[in-house]
Amino acid sequence: MQVQQNNRSFESVTVNPEWCFNNVRSVEQWTHGYHRYPAKFLPNLVKKLIEEYTDKNDLIVDLFAGCGTTLVEAKVHGRKSIGVDINPVAELITKAKINPIEPDRLDKQFDLLVESFDSFNFKDYVNIAVHERIDYWFTKEHKAKIAFLYDKILTLQDKSVKDFFLVSLSHVLKNCSKWLQSSTKPQIDPKKNPSDPFTAFQSHTKKMIKKNIEFYKQLSEKKYLDTKCEIRLEDARNTSIRANSVGAIITSPPYVTSYEYADIHQLTAYWYDYITDLSGFRKNFIGTFYSLNQEITCDSTIGQEIINSLLKKDMRTAKEVANYFNDMYAVAKEMHRVIKKNGHACLVIGNTTFKNVKVKSAEVFAEILTLLGFEMVEIIKRSIPYKLIPTIRDKKSGRFSKLKNKDSKLVYPEEYILIAKKV
Fold it and tell me: Which of 171, 199, 381, 420 could form a disulfide with 13 if both were Cys (CB 3.0 to 4.6 A apart)?
């Protein structure tokens, strides 16, 4: 569908059932289920974008790689790919997911690791210092077992195997802590009986091993094992990707102030020495109120209208949204720099509401892309499978909520896929 960039072009778009993938469990295929991650990119959505908007020899890039969904699907399709993310936890998860390991080699290392559990001595680790926040989240016994596991994994010489086990351990940290299991917000569950680290690690690693076998076999049969696929710890606003080298960008930018990824991944970040200061770590992320600045203007006309409406309601929220729009403008400039002529930018993004003001992120991003020299090719609207992203927000506080809350409302029941071409 050819489109012109205006509000009416969005309002006239109806939900396309071909892009909804209702009742699809593609998050369980290949290595997609290695590690929990909020608002995961739906693999079937990425698969369809790759098949419809890329060619065999294209380099595919995801500037918000997250847990590596785009890169895994690119590899399965035999496409070269590069992912960028500012979060070292995301980098670790993605490295494990895109690098399948020869099954027999992995089995041997796993057996040796499990055998080492017998040598665990609580006294050796009871007074180990990690970080004060670790003591907040874990009991002494669980902290000691995790420290033991972490030490054993770090002694492994094989980098791929080491990353694989580190991801498994990272995934079970939440289960083994006092963190409220169903929450993406950091809060203690006083009634929780945390899982035993050895048991949880062993169980999840076995599941990962099965998926590694499937992934390894698929790539081996297709002769895609050596297909170039890498993740870089970089800022989407300023990457090392070569100019005019990318055939297609397939990405899902963070929703405006929807998730605090630094907070969500703090257990792994502290355990693995990625951070010592959470507040400083937060400020690097896009779509976080922790990076609040004093700007109340942006280059998008639609965006400025939204900011002006928010200014009448709440100055802080207006600044958060302005900050987000300006960050996304910088990302769009980087997209234009790296994409080659006639290459496509495929972005999945949704709208939301703050203080009863509609924040039309998709419309703003489409306008920004047009301003920077992209041609909008298609706007696709899809409904979001309920379990993949929290869709309910308290109307008063703005926090994610539950339907039983009388002040709740749907926030991201639908999202847009923007298809733009560099002309």
Answer: 381
DSSP state of 6: S
Q: What SS3 class is residue 109?
A: helix
pTM, entire model: 0.91
Q: Under a CB-based contact definition with an 8 Å cutoff, are residues 338 and 241 in contact?
A: yes
User: Which two structure tokens, joined as six digits, stand for 24?
Assistant: 């699809």
**Tokens 């017998």 sit on residue:** 118
Cα–Cα distances in Å, from 280 out to 32, 46, 92, 266, 292?
30, 32, 20, 12, 12
The rounded average pLDDT for each run of 10 residues, N- to C-terminus, in the chain (423 residues) is 53 90 78 91 94 97 97 98 96 98 98 98 91 94 97 97 98 97 89 97 98 98 98 97 98 79 90 88 71 81 96 91 93 98 96 90 96 96 64 50 51 83 96
Q: For the chain, which domains are there?
A: 1-88+233-259+288-423 (3.40.50.150), 101-224 (no CATH)
* Residue whose token pair is 């005019």: 244
Residue of 85, 84, 34, 41 lying closest to 61 (CA atoms)? 84
Type of residue found at 263: D
- Structure token pair of residue 165: 């086990």
Q: Which phi and psi angles does 112 have, rounded to 5°?
A: -65, -40
Integer Cα distance of 271 and 274 in angstroms:
8
Length of the chain: 423
